[in-house]
Amino acid sequence: MTAQTDTQGSVTTVYKVTGMSCGHCEGSVSGEISGLSGVTSVKAVASTGEVTVVSAAPLDDEAVRAAVDEAGFEFAGQA
Q: Which of 22, 39, 51, 57 could cross-link 44 (Cys pair, CB 3.0–4.6 Å)?
C-alpha cells in the first residue's frame, strides 16, 4: 500500500515494523514517529506489525526509519 491522501489533504501511510510484541512496544514506536514534523496521528498494532501514520504531507521513509530505529525496532518499509 502506498500513501493515500484524504479529502482534508492529510496523507495516511501504513508501514511495517518488526519486533513489536506488546502495548509498550506500540507506545514506543508511536511516540517516536509522533515526533516527526507534520505527523497528526499514529496507531501501531503489535500483532500485525503495522503502523498507520496520518500526516500533513508524505513523510520521508528515512525519517520514519530513524524514528523506528530510535524506538528499538526494525523498519520494514511501507505495507
A: 51
